[in-house]
Write a structure and sequence with these properties.
The protein has about 180 residues and is α+β, with helices and mostly antiparallel strands. The chain has helices at about 45-50, 115-120, 125, 140; strands at about 10-15, 25, 40, 55-60, 60, 65, 75, 85-90, 95-100, 105, 145-150, 170.
Length: about 180
């Protein structure tokens, strides 16, 4: 059973894009370590792609992710020689980042269904939920184990957000 020091962990989660044309399910391996798989990134590429100050994602084995809808609108952008950014070509939702050479994929936490992030009856819309605690799994899914590209902090803005100081702070990315 996957474990975390931050509370209960999901066996699986679902998510997808804003328009609903791309849907996925992640089934966590029994040995998944939630405490060391969360990433917050402040790089310029993540900011430009999301329109936000940072991107929150969780790294999982590629084999843990299953597309549960058609993938006709799923697009990838080669942001660099080593990385690909997945998004819906219809609505523009950012869905993941993945290394070309890696066996992992990092789905964005913002694309996770509300049921798993904050619970509170969101199950009526997304189904299931019998194993979801009332408060959801948001805390364990976005704990900020690694905060990447801290060299790109915005003075007076992202250098003062408590979430960005929870984990290991890296000037580059976790592979550096």
């Amino acid at each position: 059973m996957p474990k975390s020091s931050l509370g209960p962990t999901p066996k699986s989660i679902t998510g997808g894009c804003l328009c609903g044309s791309v849907r996925y399910k992640i089934t966590y391996p029994d040995d998944h370590d939630f405490d060391s798989s969360n990433y917050l990134c402040q790089c310029t590429q993540c900011r430009k792609q999301t329109g936000g100050l940072f991107l929150v994602s969780q790294q999982v084995p590629v084999s843990a992710l299953e597309w549960t809808s058609g993938t006709e609108t799923l697009k990838e952008y080669a942001a660099s020689e080593s990385g690909r950014r997945g998004f819906c070509g219809e609505c523009g939702s950012v869905l993941f980042w993945r290394s070309v050479a890696g066996r992992t994929i990092s789905p964005t936490i913002g694309s996770v269904d509300p049921l798993y992030l904050f619970g509170e009856g969101a199950g009526a819309r997304f189904g299931g939920g019998e194993d979801v605690p009332a408060e959801g799994f948001g805390r364990v899914l976005c704990s900020g184990t690694y905060v990447e590209w801290c060299a790109n902090e915005i003075k007076g803005v992202t250098d003062d957000i408590p979430l960005l100081f929870r984990g290991k702070r890296l000037q580059g990315n976790a592979e550096d």
